[in-house]
Amino acid sequence: MAGGGGRSGALISGKRGKFLSPVPIKKARIEIVPLIDVMFFLLAAFMMVSLSLQQSKTRPMELIDAKKATDDFKPDVINIGVEKDGTVAIGTNIVDTAALVLELNSRYKQNPKTPIFITGDKSAPYRAVGGVLQQVRSARFTRVSFVTKEAERNSQ
After folding, report:
1. Number of folded domains in the chain?
2. Per-residue pLDDT for the chain (156 aa), expressed as one digit of tens each?
3. What CATH code is carried by the domain that includes residue 128?
4. 58, 92 in Cβ contact below 8 A?
């Protein structure tokens, strides 16, 4: 029968359930382009984090041991050091309590998100380090970190 009700095999491309479908059935594919995009984003994020690590340049003192630490210094951070005898220094300048409060308040007015790094000598009194932290908090700074040195591993 020419042009009759016969089925042509070229038009039928897939079977769905009991009926034949004219729509071709596509096989599942794993798209790797979005995966590559995500990996590049993670790479860029880790690079930006590693660039934000800083170095601290304060008065030399014996630091508390920690598992992992880095020294940080940039002009837009505040480095506060507490020495063995309890004296406080901002960067390399020794200051008293009143000067510390004035400096913290003026720096807060310039940039409230300025990071502060507190470096305490291993033998520094806890009260002195706690007092510096209290003064930093009273100046309303929120980005405060303690600087330590990496603990030496004993080979036993």
Report:
1. 1
2. 455 555 544 444 555 567 777 777 778 888 888 889 999 999 999 888 877 766 656 677 777 666 664 555 555 788 898 988 888 998 888 898 888 889 899 989 988 888 999 988 888 888 888 899 999 998 998 888 888 766 665 544
3. 3.30.420.270
4. yes
Are residues 89 and 81 in contact, defined by beta-carbon separation less than 8 angstroms? yes
Asked if residue 49 is part of any domain, the answer here is no
Determine, yes or no, domain membership for 42. Answer: no
Query: Residue 121: inside a domain, yes or no?
Result: yes
Identity of the residue numbered 118: I
Q: Rounded to the nearest 10 degrees, how much is the dihedral formed by the CA atoms of 16, 20, 26, 27? A: 50
Alpha helices, DSSP H only, in the chain? 33-51, 97-110, 126-138
Instruction: Return the amino acid letter for 94.
Output: I
